[in-house]
Amino acid sequence: MRVDLLMTGILVITIAVAVAGFTLIARRLLDLRFGTIRTLLAAALVLGIAGPLMRSFIGMVDPDDPGITPLWFLILAAVCSLLAGMVFLVIAEALVPPGSLPGPVELVRGLRGRMVRSRRYLQITRILVRHGLGPYLRGRAPDLGAPSSRVRLARSLREALDDAGVTFVKLGQILSTRGDLLPVEFVEELRLLQDRVASAPWAEIEPVLVAELGGPVAETFADFEREPLAAASIAQVYRARLKTGEEVVVKVQRPGIAAVVEQDLDIVARLARTLERRTRWGRAFGVGDLSRGFAEALREELDFRIETANMAAVAAASAGEPVHVPVPYPELSGRRVLVMERLEGAALGSAVPEGRDRRELARTLLDTLLRQIMLHGVFHADPHPGNIMLLADGRLALLDFGSVGRLDGALRAALQRLLGAMDRGGPLGVSDALLEVVSRPDEIDENELERELGRFMARHVVTGVAPDMQMFGRLFRIVSAHGLSVPPEVAAVFRALATVEGTLARLAPGFDIMAEARAFSARHLQEESTPIRLRQAVEQEALSLLPMLRRLPRRIERIAGAAEHGRFSLNVRLFADERDRRHITGLLHQVLITVLAATTGIMAVLLLGTDNGLQLTPGVSLHQLIGYNLLVISAILALRVLVTVFRQDR
């Protein structure tokens, strides 16, 4: 029994040493690391054929011939076995690249995720069927020619999105701002998702409050109403009063919403990748980037600490403006709870009381948003009617800062030039300014882009033509058709302007947003043209140029002196970048290894075809033995080149 255990241990140790030796040799010769599973399979192949090869090669040696040693044949058999394992690795690298198949851990996680997604798919399917959308899933859509049919479908879609959860509610809210894509019946119905979402019961909300506050609700608040003031897709808002007497509102995140959002975002991301891979319009619109931007924005909205910081940033950007931003209480707020100042008034989504100057309110709102975008670079990115309140004193207030856009100075300057060019009506200026805003490809037909923008301006940016939602959709289509990529920050600006256009249309029908934007531009230009502003701008530019101006005379003197004495020269360094040197070195290595493999292979073939030389066995001469070894070396070098070709840089 002990002998059997000892033999088993020796066998296991031998196999382990052989596998480790093969792994080290294969990595060294091929200069790459391989996965554990394919390395073990290759090592098993080597161990499986090594014994038969050695017996076969030793059988070629005459045991009675004292001049022939079997050592070289044993080495040749071992090298051939090693070569077989390396061939297996290269073939596996070509047929099954690394990452194309999941590992055991990833496979288990993938199965679990697939089961979770399948349950979510079934849940969403049941919701759609329950709201009468089953025929659309089967591809048998009824006739929607009549307005009443579109109204019924829009209501069913809104109710289904509401039941499906926060991700689909947010998707519906975004679609409600896209009048360029959807009929008016759908836009009007989906707008109800902005302020008419079913509320969660208090029994589900209270544990969230207790966990975030670190104790019972009564320890922090003197009074807390359990009926929500409003229910949104992510959170619900409650009235409360602090122990110190301040009237506040408390925004509480819906329980368990983060996990559901992650599942839904995974589904949205997979669908976007499929559309981008299989459809031309998906690639043109960059639905992959759009889904990633949507996911990033939604994840930010789930962290109320970010919203607290956003409120402070927008409040600073709106200082001195007639639009109010509620004051948050950071010490009482957390990731899922936000406590802020209570404002008395009504949401702009409801009817504006009589006696209010609707056009003046619309002008104030647009002026504030444009100042946030163009002057301060921090702006409310979702100004739909549910996020705007009309206070009792007649002022407007902004709510819900989960989505806030930010622009740096360069983008703000480029946008100002774009709006100025559109105001002047020159397609060439608009084209040049647009190419400063977006990310342009290497090749672009600027003449065709200029003509497209000219037709766009003739249709939408003329006196007497009121802009609509189709204006922004048309501009996005022009940008996408020419292969231009809109940065996420600029896309947030267009989305905010498109959203506020719909808000202004409901607040003051017939409000000319382009005329007001031109008036804002004129006022801003006038403000920037005052003597004080001009002097400040000149002083800032002079201060930035002063260090260069101080060094300029000395540099000019050195250049002039060198030219006078004939020492003026130019020093050009090729391949100064380390990445260029590595690339060229890698190519030279590949070429050198390829030449060596070809040369060694040719020499092996020549030696194998030679009949002269010392006969080691009746069928193998010394020249042929050397040829076999050279052939193995040639194969190893060729495999190293091939595996580098197959292995993509990941």
State the gist of this model.
This protein is an alpha+beta fold and 650 residues long. 64% of the residues lie in helices and 7% in strands. Among the domains are: 104-140 and 148-194, no CATH class; 344-530, no CATH class; 579-646.
What does this protein structure show overall?
The protein is of the alpha+beta class and 650 residues long. Among the domains are: 104-140 and 148-194, no CATH class; 344-530, no CATH class; 579-646. It contains 24 helices and eleven strands. The protein has helices spanning 2-30, 36-58, 71-95, 104-130, 134-137, 147-164, 166-175, 184-190, 202-213, 217-220, 257-278, 280-285, 287-301, 304-317, 358-376, 409-424, 427-437, 446-460, 469-481, 488-507, 513-528, 531-564, 578-608, 622-646, and strands at residues 221-224, 230-231, 235-242, 247-253, 323-324, 337-341, 345-347, 378-380, 388-391, 396-398, 404-406. Strands 1, 2, 3, 4 and 6 form a five-stranded antiparallel β-sheet that branches. It has a four-stranded mixed β-sheet with strand order 5-10-9-7. Helix 11 (257-278) runs antiparallel to helix 13 (287-301), helix 15 (358-376) packs antiparallel against helix 20 and helix 15 crosses helix 21 (513-528). The longest helix is centred in the last third of the chain and has 34 residues, at 531-564. The mean pLDDT is 77.
